[in-house]
Specification:
The complex is a heterodimer of chains A (40) and B (255). By secondary structure, chain A is an alpha+beta fold. Helix content of chain A is 32%, strand content 22%. In chain B, helix 4 crosses helix 5 and helix 7 packs antiparallel against helix 8 (180-194). The longest helix of chain B has 16 residues, at 84-99. The chains are: A alpha+beta (40), B alpha/beta (255). Strand 2 of chain A pairs parallel with strand 1 of chain B.
Chain lengths: 40, 255
C-alpha cells in the first residue's frame, strides 16, 4: 500500500492508473480505525 | 472494503477530517483520529493507495466557491445540522476530482449522507457509480460507531434494542402492516420501554428522495436517532417495495 499526502502526487498516480485503464474504486473516510468503514 | 476490492482493479481510500462539515459547536478538534491505526487497518483490508492529505493540501486557501444542497437535508440528522451536508458535498466533489473513481463506496449507516451523495452525482453528472455498504454491527446487532465507547455499561446493554426495534418494524411490514405511523409507534414503544435513551426521531421516508410516505409499498428507509447520556446513536433499515431488507444499495443509472 502506498501512502499519499499531496494532491498533485495523487493526481499523477490516478493519471497513470487511467492510462492503464484500471477501474478505480474509492472509499472516502474520516478514519476507519474504529470500524470497518466509517462515514465521512 | 472487500466489495471495493472485488469490483475494481485498484482501491483508493482517503482519510480526511473535513472542517467544513463541522458546525461551530461541533467537535472538529475532538474528533477521534489515529493515523497509525488507520494506515495499519487500510493495509490489512487491501487498500492500494491511501490518500491522507493535511488540511492545507485540501484547503490551501479560503474557498472562493461554496456549494449548497437544497433537498434531502431537512429530515433525519440534517434537521439539526445546518450546513453540514454543504461541507460534505464540497469535500466529496474535491475528492472525486482528485481520485476520479469509477465506483465510490459509502456506509449505509449514514443513509442520509448516501442520499445526498446520490443527488450530487446525479445533479453534477459525475461519471461515478455509488454503492451503499451495509452497516457493520456488533454481535448483538448494535451498529458499530466511534460513539459507542461513550455509552455507560447499562446503556450499552440497552443499546441493541435500537436494532431489535428496527427489525420488529421490518417484521410488521412482512406481516402486512403498510401504515408508517403504526410502525413508528411500535418502534417508539420498544425503545421507550427498554432503554433510558431519549428518542430524537423515528422516521419512515422514501429512499433516496427522503420524502414522507403514506404507505410502505416503495423503497423506504426506517431511520432513528436516540440520545443517551453521552452518546447519540443512529441506525436504519432500508426496505425495497416488497418489504425485503436491502443490504447493498446501488444508485440507479443517471437519467
Amino acid at each position: 500500500m502506498e501512502i499519499i499526502r499531496e494532491v498533485n502526487e495523487m493526481r499523477n498516480i490516478i493519471k497513470l492508473l487511467k492510462q492503464g485503464k484500471k477501474k478505480i474504486g474509492f472509499v472516502p473516510t474520516m478514519g476507519f480505525f474504529m470500524t470497518d468503514i466509517s462515514n465521512l | 472494503m472487500k466489495k471495493a476490492k472485488e469490483e475494481n482493479d485498484t482501491v483508493v481510500s482517503s482519510v480526511f477530517v473535513n472542517p467544513l462539515q463541522f458546525g461551530p459547536n461541533e467537535d472538529f478538534d475532538r474528533y477521534p483520529r489515529n493515523e497509525e491505526e488507520d494506515i495499519r487497518k487500510a493495509e490489512y483490508v487491501g487498500v492500494d493507495f491511501l490518500f491522507i492529505p493535511p488540511l492545507d493540501e485540501m484547503y490551501p486557501q479560503k474557498m472562493q466557491i461554496t456549494m449548497t444542497i437544497n433537498d434531502r437535508i431537512d429530515v433525519l440528522c440534517g434537521k439539526a445540522r445546518p450546513g453540514h451536508f454543504d461541507g460534505v458535498i464540497t469535500v466529496v466533489t474535491k475528492l472525486f476530482h482528485i481520485t476520479q473513481p469509477d465506483q465510490v463506496y459509502f456506509g449505509m449507516k449514514d443513509a442520509q449522507q448516501v442520499a445526498v451523495i446520490d443527488a450530487l452525482i446525479q445533479n453534477l453528472n459525475f461519471p461515478i457509480s455509488l454503492i451503499g455498504l451495509p452497516t457493520v454491527r456488533e454481535e448483538d446487532g448494535l451498529a458499530k460507531s466511534s460513539r459507542n465507547v461513550n455509552l455507560s455499561k447499562r446503556e450499552r446493554a440497552q443499546a441493541n434494542w435500537l436494532y431489535k426495534a428496527l427489525k420488529h418494524g421490518h417484521q410488521l411490514v412482512v406481516d402486512g402492516e403498510f401504515n408508517p405511523a403504526i410502525i413508528i409507534k411500535e418502534i417508539n414503544n420498544i425503545i421507550s420501554n427498554n432503554t433510558d435513551g431519549k428518542i430524537d426521531y423515528i422516521e419512515v421516508l422514501s429512499y433516496p428522495e427522503l420524502k414522507p410516505v403514506s404507505d410502505m409499498n416503495q423503497q423506504v428507509i426506517i431511520a432513528l436517532a436516540v440520545q443517551f447520556e453521552r452518546a447519540r446513536l443512529i441506525d436504519n433499515l432500508l426496505l425495497n417495495e416488497d418489504g425485503e431488507i436491502i443490504r447493498f444499495w446501488k444508485q440507479e443509472e443517471s437519467q
